[in-house]
Design a protein that fits this description.
28% strand, homodimer, 385 residues, six-stranded mixed sheet, 9 helices, 26 strands, elongated, alpha/beta
Chain lengths: 385, 385
C-alpha cells in the first residue's frame, strides 16, 4: 500500500483522531478508598474539603519570646526593653497563662502563641537572665506569627477530582485532617505477545526466533506507572490466540497484544477479535512508526493490538495505548513531561495528514533555549534505549 | 543567631559541601539479582554484555517479496520484472530453500531472509498471481533487510554499572538474551516524627497539636521512588526517642527524623544521637529553607535529622536526604529532571555563601525559552502542593 492509498483507505484514521477515539471510548475503572500514605501516584476520584484549620491555632515561626507589641516598640541596642519571663511554651504544650504588659513567654518555633501576646522576638535579638529578657533590637521584619488557617482553612477545597496525588499535596491533605480519600483504581492489564518466533527471556533461542523484548519493555513501562500487569506468549495460531483472550478477559481491565497486527496472511489478531465480536474502533493510524495499531472494545474492555517491530511497538504503545491505560487510572493529561524545543536541523516532511514520531536528543543551547537533534536510525533497540 | 554568626560558626557547612558529604559518606546498600521484568526503577550493579545477536539472522523489514537484486534492476511501471514465486516464509518459520535468478519468496516483516535473496520488494510495488509476481517499481530507497546483530551484537557492552533500568533499556537487554541482572537493592528507610504535638492522620487533634503532614509527604516521596519505608511518631522525650532509634536501627538501612532538630531546650534529637555515639558529619547547612538539617552515621547507617517546619522539612529532604537515599539505591545523578530557565523578575540576594531555594512556577515564554516566577510565600503547604 502506498502513502496515497493509505490516505484514501477507509480504515486509516489520523493520529489526533485516534487519540481522541481512545480517550472517549475508555472510562475510569473503579474507585478505591485508600489511606493517604498509600495514595502516591493515584488520581483523586472526589473533591476534598479541609476538615480543620492548619495550623489549628496561631503559632510561632521562631524560637524566641512572645511579647506585647507596645512593650518593645522603642527597644534598641542602646536602650533595650526589659521584660519579665513568666513561663515557657513548647510545640506540644502551650503556655496556659496570659501575657500582660511588661511580660514575656519563652517559646520555640511551632509553639502556640500565648494569650495576650502579639508577636515573637527571635532569640538572636534577645539577651536572657534567669528571670528577665533584654530585647535589644526589633529589626526582624515580621511578627513571626503563623496564623490559624494560614496554611489551609477548614472548609476550603484542597483537592479536585482528577488531580494527581503528589507528595506535597498529600502533606496538605494530612495537615487538613484528611486520612483517607477516594482514588481511581489502577487497571489490571494483560500483555499478549503473539508469534511462533517469540521466546521468553531465559529460554533457548532457535534459528529465526527472537526474545520477547517488546513484552519486557511494555511491562516495564506499565510497572513504572504502578499499573499491575501479567504477560502471555502465544503461538501465531487462530485457535490459541482466541483461547488465551477468552481465558484472560474476565480477569483484566484491558488487553494489549503485540505482533500479529500487520496485514499479511499470518497476521491473525484482528481477525480473531472480529470473530469474537469486538467493537472495532480503528484499524490503522496515519502515524509512523506504529501505523499498524488497532483498537477496539471486547465486552466493553479496551484491546490495543500493537505491531510487532520494536520501534512501531514502542511508539504505538507510548502514543496511544499508554495514554488510554492511564486514562483508566484517572489521568486526563499526557503521561510525560513535555518540553518545547526547536529543531537544530532541517527535517524533510512528506505528508501533512501523517504524524511521524522521531527519536531525538534534547540539549540546552548556548542561548538558553532547548533544541533537538534527530537520532540516526541504524540500531533500533539501541536508539530506543 | 544572625547570618553573620551563622557564617562564622563552626557547625555550619555550605550547601554544596553538605551534599558532597552526604554522597561521600553513603555507600551502596546491597545487590540483588532480579528478573528483567522486575527491574524497573533499579540501577545496574554490573556491566552487562549481550549474549546473542539481535536479530539473530537477517530479517525483512517489510511485507513483500525476497528477490535477487539483479532480477529487478531494470523493472519499471511499463516493463515489470516477472518472477516465479517458489514459496513463502513467516516470522516464526523460515523458507528453507534457496532463491535463484528469476525466483521470489513471499515473506512478511520479521521473516528471515531466505538463502540467496539480497533484498525485499515491499508488496505495494508488486502485483501477484497464483504463481508469479510482477515487480513494477523499485523506488523504495533501501534493501528492506535488517541485518543480524544490527540492533545489538553478541559481546557488545549494553549496560554499564550505575545506569538506570528504563523500559527501552530492559527491552534491549531482553533482545540480547539477558533474563536476569544484578541491581542495587532499594534501602529500607524509617521515618521518625518527633514531637508531643504531632498526631497521625485519622486521630483526633487537641489544641496546639498538628497532623503529621511531613511524615505523609516524605513517605509519599520515597514511595514514588519505590523506596520501602516505615513510619513512627514519638514523643519529644529523650528516652522515648532513644528507645525508638535503638529498636528500629537493626531493621533499616537509613533513618530520617522530622522535628526536634532546631536549637531550643526541647530539641533533643541531636543530643540523643550524640549520646548514642553517632558520627556527626554536619549539624547545620547554609541553605534556606532547611538550615536545621543534621546528618551523621549511627553504626554506619545514615541518619538525616530534618527540621519540623513543613517548608524547611521538605527542602532539606529533597535537596539532601533524598539524594543520599537514592545514592544508596545506586543513583549517582540528581533525583529530578532539571531545566535551565531565566528569572522573569529580579531577586534580591543577601549573601553569597548562603544557598536559598525558592519555590517557583515554570513557564514557556513567547521566545521559546523557559522562565520562572517566584511563588508568593503566604500559605506554606498550599504553595508546596
Amino acid at each position: 500500500m502506498t502513502i496515497q492509498e493509505i490516505d484514501e483507505g477507509t480504515e486509516y484514521v489520523g493520529f489526533n483522531k485516534a487519540l481522541e477515539l481512545v480517550l472517549s471510548n475508555i472510562y475510569y475503572v473503579k474507585i478505591d478508598t485508600l489511606a493517604l500514605e498509600s495514595c502516591t501516584g493515584y488520581f483523586a476520584a472526589e473533591n476534598v474539603i479541609a476538615l480543620v484549620d492548619s495550623p489549628t491555632g496561631n503559632i510561632s515561626l521562631k524560637d524566641g519570646f512572645a511579647v506585647k507589641a507596645g512593650d518593645i516598640a522603642n527597644a534598641s541596642e542602646q536602650s533595650p526593653a526589659v521584660l519579665r519571663i513568666i513561663g515557657s511554651g513548647f510545640a506540644g504544650s502551650r503556655f496556659e497563662g496570659h501575657i500582660s504588659n511588661g511580660q514575656a513567654v519563652k517559646i520555640c518555633a511551632g509553639s502556640p502563641i500565648p494569650s495576650g501576646a502579639e508577636l515573637v522576638i527571635p532569640e538572636e535579638f534577645c539577651t536572657q537572665t534567669s528571670t528577665e529578657v533584654y530585647v535589644r533590637n526589633i529589626s526582624d521584619d515580621g511578627k513571626n506569627v503563623f496564623y490559624a488557617g494560614q496554611d489551609v482553612k477548614a472548609g476550603a477545597l484542597i483537592l479536585k477530582r482528577g488531580e494527581p496525588l503528589l507528595p506535597a499535596r498529600l502533606g496538605l491533605l494530612a495537615a487538613a485532617g484528611i486520612s483517607r480519600i477516594k482514588v481511581y483504581r489502577k487497571p489490571k492489564v494483560s500483555i499478549v505477545a503473539i508469534g511462533d518466533e517469540v521466546v521468553a527471556p531465559g529460554q533457548t533461542l532457535k534459528d529465526g526466533q527472537l526474545y520477547a523484548s517488546n513484552l519486557v519493555a511494555t511491562e516495564a513501562w506499565l510497572s513504572s506507572f504502578n499499573i499491575p500487569c501479567s504477560t502471555i506468549i502465544t503461538n501465531d495460531n487462530r485457535k490459541d490466540i482466541q483461547n488465551e483472550l477468552t481465558k484472560i478477559l474476565p480477569m483484566v481491565d484491558a488487553i494489549i497484544t503485540s505482533g500479529g497486527a500487520w496485514g499479511s496472511e499470518r497476521d491473525l489478531i484482528v481477525k480473531v477479535l472480529d470473530s469474537m465480536g469486538w467493537e472495532k474502533i480503528f484499524n490503522r493510524v496515519r502515524m509512523g512508526p506504529g501505523k499498524g495499531i488497532s483498537f477496539g472494545l471486547l465486552k466493553q474492555k479496551p484491546v490495543f493490538c500493537l505491531p510487532g517491530g520494536p520501534p512501531s511497538n514502542e511508539m504505538a504503545f507510548l502514543q496511544l495505548a499508554l495514554p488510554g491505560i492511564l486514562h483508566m487510572a484517572g489521568q486526563d493529561g499526557p503521561p510525560f513531561f513535555s518540553i518545547k524545543a526547536r529543531l537544530a536541523e532541517s527535517l524533510k516532511g512528506r505528508h501533512s495528514a501523517w504524524t511521524e514520531f522521531r527519536r531525538a536528543n534534547l540539549f540546552s543551547d548556548t542561548d538558553g533555549s532547548y533544541k533537538v537533534t534527530l537520532c540516526p536510525e541504524i540500531s533500533r533497540l539501541r536508539s530506543m534505549a
